[in-house]
Amino acid sequence: MEGRELKEDATKQTTELARRDKEGEVSALLPVVSTGHLALLDSRIGDPATPVEEAIALTRIRGEIVKQEEFRLDKAGERRAEARQYLGKLGFSALAVCTGVGLIATGTTWVGFVILGVGFHWLAPDFVTNVYSRILGAKDKTNAE
């Protein structure tokens, strides 16, 4: 019974989308369609009883759905890559801060401060750049202009 309801629901959705495509008002974001729905679309497109105009509209809709699904998957991959990059930078920063503190504690003060600055540079780059320029005696580029 559930399979029949799913098929009827998918048929209603594709018929509505085909009507909207024929009228030129297909939305920019079509609903997310599962593999079963794509298979249903394929069967409707390949069915000899389907009118040619509807089959053409369904083919366009199917192409748009597949394109949007690929775009969604690409964006999800980009978000995962950004999260990995963020965690990697955060881990490197924490390691550099701990190393800097350890070097300062063992008496290697200047090297410890440099490594500590490297660790904090990712967290607050403008602040660290200003502190280093004051310590090293470099001119502040923002006030020079």
Features:
145 residues, mainly alpha, 6 helices, single chain
Q: Can you give a write-up of this model?
A:
- This protein has helices at residues 2-22, 35-46, 52-106, 109-121, 125-136, 141-144.
- It has one domain (2-137).
- It has 145 residues and is mainly alpha-helical.
- It starts with a helix and ends with a helix.
- Helix 3 (52-106) runs antiparallel to helix 4 (109-121).
N-end to C-end Cα span: 76 Å
The number of domains: 1
Overall mean pLDDT: 78
Low-pLDDT runs of 5+ residues are: none
Number of strands: 0
Shape: rod-shaped
Q: What kind of sheet is the major sheet?
A: none
How much strand content do the residues show?
Answer: under 5%
Describe what is shown at a glance.
The chain is mainly α and 145 residues long.
List the SSEs and their pairings.
Elements (H helix, E strand, L loop, with lengths): L1 H21 L12 H12 L5 H55 L2 H13 L3 H12 L4 H4 L1
Helix pairs in contact: 1-3, 2-3, 3-4, 4-5
